[in-house]
Each structure stands twice: as C-alpha cells, then as structure tokens.
Amino acid sequence: MSQLTAIADALTFTETHLKDDISVSDMAEAASYSLYHFSRVFNGLVHHTPYDYLMRRRLSESTRWLAETDRKIVDIAFEYHFGSHETFSRAFKRMFGMPPSEYRELSADAGGPVNHPRHLPPLTADYLKHINQQDLLWPDPEEQPPIDVTGLMSWVDQPSAVSTLWEALERELHNLARGPEPEAFYGIIWYPRNRRGQGYFYLAGFLDPWLGPLGAGRRPFHPGLVTKTLPDLVCARFVHSGTRGCLPFTRGYIYHTWFSHASWGAALPMEIERWGDGGRPPRDGACACDILVPISSTEL
Question: Does domain 3-123 have CATH number 3.40.50.300?
Fold first, then answer.
C-alpha cells in the first residue's frame, strides 16, 4: 500500500466519524500505520497535523448546521466534540475570523451557507497527489504593478462557465481584428463577502498596448467589454501546473492550508490568474499559470 493510499484511507475514516469520539490513534489504525509513522507521513502529505485536520473538518461541517438549522450553538459544539460553547467559539473564530453567531447571521442574510475561503472540504487522494507533485507549496513574493485588464466578466459557478467565458472573449477579439495579439491574458476572480455555494465573479481579460484611454480615440467602443484597473499589489505567487480542472485544488491549498500557516493574510477577496507568453487558458489538458493572491502582513 502506498503512503498516499494509506493517508486517503485515514481521510475517509475521519470523514465518516466526524461526530464520533475518535482520536489520532484511530486515524493511524485506519491507515494501518503506527502512531508516530502516521503523524509524520500525514503531515508531510496533507500539510496539516492529523489533529488539526480533524478539528478543521469538524469546524467546517459545523457551518452547515449553523446556517441550515436553529439548533443552539452549544449543542452544535457538543455534537462535534468541543467541550464547551467557549472552546468551540474560540476555535471557530481562529479559523474563520468571526464567531459562530456572526456566521449564522451572515448566512441568514445570504439565504444559505456562506462559502468562506478557509472552509476545509473533505480532502481526496487526487487533491493530495496534485499538491505534492509540483513546486506549489512555497510561493514567491511579487509586486504586481498597476495594470488595466480588459475583457468579459460574469458570475460563474462551475468550471465549464469559465471556459465558455474565454471562448466568448476569443470570438470578440477575432471580431475586433485590430493590431497585434494581446501580450498577456489574465483571469481575475472576485469573491463577494456573502457568497453562497462555489460561485464567484470572473473576468476573462487581456493586456493590450493599443487599447488606450477611451477618450483618446484609440479604444473601439464595445458594450460587452469592461476594463478593471488593478492597483499596485503585493502578492504571493503560486505556480499552478496541471489540468485546468485541478485549479480548484491549487486554490484550495492556498486558502485552507497555506494561509493557515503563513504570517500573511489575504489583503483582498480576489485572485489573479496570469497566463504568460501569450498563452490562453486551455479548455482541458495540461496547463500552467501563475496564481497571484494579494497579501498583507498579519504581524503587528
């Protein structure tokens, strides 16, 4: 049995026993490893300790109960084996940046569970394989200068919608038929504060030197194209390498794992996909791009 398979078995066991009184020793037994060996391998592949993963999964699952039921918070705390209302609330605030009562209020306003970026979903063998096969884990800091990104923007809730948006942009660029090819393509993702589900706003855009200011007479009017001006940003640059379908794995690692250990916080609820050298996001197959996440120091 490979290490990845053994840890995946432990993850499956954990998922089916979140409400049971289990320990890290039980997780190790599910992987058929000694406690010491299990803890070392688990931390190396998952990049959380087994106990941290168990707590984060319990807290993540508790959000559904907070949003969809009127059960008392203390009852939800006991359901997921937190010893008291206070212990649960402290752990919840450390993970999500707000107490459970505030999360419940936000979800009520949104009409359902608010999708917080720190939410930890059940991890799978495919996820573990992806994050451990590339130079993803340690991002490079980068200053992103101000740029204007022009393109098509829409609310999307599934990968196919993003592909459709890029295809529409391709057609519009062909219809414009002006000047040289854009020098770079960018995908800008914006997460509304109270968003439900997996949706977000996505701008499929490009940089193009011949698109000057609208009033200068150099930019053709197009009612469907929008321009977003990004300010000067300090970003963590992650390198994604894999299929476009694996981009959610890379994003997931950034928010629910890297940010939980880094001395940086997210400066804005957004990401920037940068497809360099004139490359366009492929519909499927292998691809590579930079993912830039604006950051700010959490150290005061």
Answer: no
Q: Residues 159-208: pLDDT tens digits? A: 788 889 999 998 888 777 665 677 789 999 998 877 776 789 999 998 86
d(CA 258, CA 261) in angstroms, rounded, equals: 5
Q: What gap in Å lies between CA 227 and CA 55, rounded to an integer? A: 42
Report whether 236 contacts 141 (CB < 8 A): yes
User: Hey, which CATH number is domain 140-297, 2.80.10.50, 3.40.50.620, 3.40.50.150, 3.20.80.10?
Assistant: 3.20.80.10
Within 13 Å and on the Cβ side, how many CA atoms surround 254?
A: 27
Provide long-range contacts, Cβ within 8 A and 24+ apart, for 252-256.
252/121, 252/127, 253/47, 253/131, 253/136, 253/137, 254/291, 254/293, 255/117, 255/118, 256/56, 256/117, 256/118, 256/119, 256/120, 256/121
All structural domains of the chain with their residue ranges: 3-123, 140-297
Let me know: does 30 contact 38? Beta carbons within 8 Å: no
How many other C-beta atoms can be found within 10 angstroms of the C-beta atom of residue 299? 6
Q: How far is CA 278 from the centre of its chain?
A: 25
pTM: 0.84
Phi and psi at 237, nearest 5°, equal: -100, 115
What is the distance between the alpha carbons of residues 264 and 271, in angstroms, rounded to a whole number? 15
Strand segments (E) across 105-180: 140-144, 147-156
Residue 145, H or E segment = none
